[in-house]
């Protein structure tokens, strides 16, 4: 089931006529700032849906900003900047009142759209009725909370569209969430580097086969690009597709032996959301096209035998990426296998430069 909440992406205009801005954005933000903490004007996965029940609220940090998530009386998920509009006290330590949050500091009540509905200490205060706290547009899909994070106060959310595998009713999937102590760009570099599967994951249950040498090519598409081996297919982590849709994601397939149960090839959809410049929220959906009774067999087999093995593979990635120096991608000697890495870095540098230029022109 997919639910949405309406967007309010700007802060109130300050006294003196300064222009409204998107949360967390400064006029002096550089391309490096944006690249480190997360590019804007796109959808990001925020948290698994099951982690926030009705009547609960939860503080999270994403794109180097503190947010508070809560469900209103109807169960609809809301996402606000974690600041009371009065004195910027965190709303996440306040009280959940069903359709609103009450700040613990002075009792100011803010609803899910970011509108101040009550100032108990001064009824009739001019703050009442103002949309004074940033509220993001949120969609719940694929057991995950997604939010559109704007660049400017005028940014319009793009249509929300799930990755192909997750939108296909004939595909069965299992979500996976983890937080890693490493920059989000390291995750993207890692998944755009299929050759590491033949070494780092050599002893895994699914990537033990194939050559340890290969040639690669980039194949452009109308939504991104494929980075793939030219001399091997269907043996190991032989290709990855980078997709620019509603959100950025990678799509790949890992061949499975017959003893892995019924269904087609094993697919993975992967995304990374910056927590801050040094930490990342990592989301995967493990997929397989399978129907009928075979679907139930596959899901049982995955839960009882295969899930733990996939966690082992992820742990191998996490351990290496967390061990890298923060400037590891500045001291390298790249070669032909790294065409995918250089391409994704070039894309994100260009994006960050364009967004920094917009801010320089908008925030005057």
What would you say this structure looks like, in words?
The protein has 364 residues and is α+β, with helices and mostly antiparallel strands. The protein folds into two domains: 3-149, 3-layer Sandwich (Rieske Iron-sulfur Protein), CATH 2.102.10.10; 164-331, Naphthalene 1,2-dioxygenase Alpha Subunit, Chain A, domain 1 (Alpha-Beta Complex), CATH 3.90.380. The chain has five helices and 18 strands. The strands form four sheets. The chain has a seven-stranded antiparallel β-sheet with strand order 12-18-17-16-15-14-13. The longest helix has 32 residues, at 292-323. It is globular. This is Rieske domain-containing protein. Residues 43-147 form the Rieske domain. It comes from Rhodococcus rhodnii LMG 5362.
Strand percentage lies at 25-35%
Kindly, what is the distance between the CA atoms of the first and last residues, rounded to a whole number of angstroms? 42 Å
Q: What is the radius of gyration? A: 22 Å
Which structural category do the helix and sheet elements fall into? alpha+beta
Low-confidence stretches: 6-19
Number of helices: 5
What is the N-to-C order of secondary-structure elements (H for helix, E for strand)?
EHEEEEEEEEEEHEHEEEEEEHH
Largest sheet: 7 strands, antiparallel
CATH topology of the largest domain: Naphthalene 1,2-dioxygenase Alpha Subunit, Chain A, domain 1
- The CATH superfamily of the largest domain is identified as Naphthalene 1,2-dioxygenase Alpha Subunit, Chain A, domain 1
Quick one: overall form?
A: globular
Mean pLDDT: 87
Can you list the strand order of the major beta sheet?
12-18-17-16-15-14-13
Helix content: 10-25%
DSSP summary, beta strand count:
18
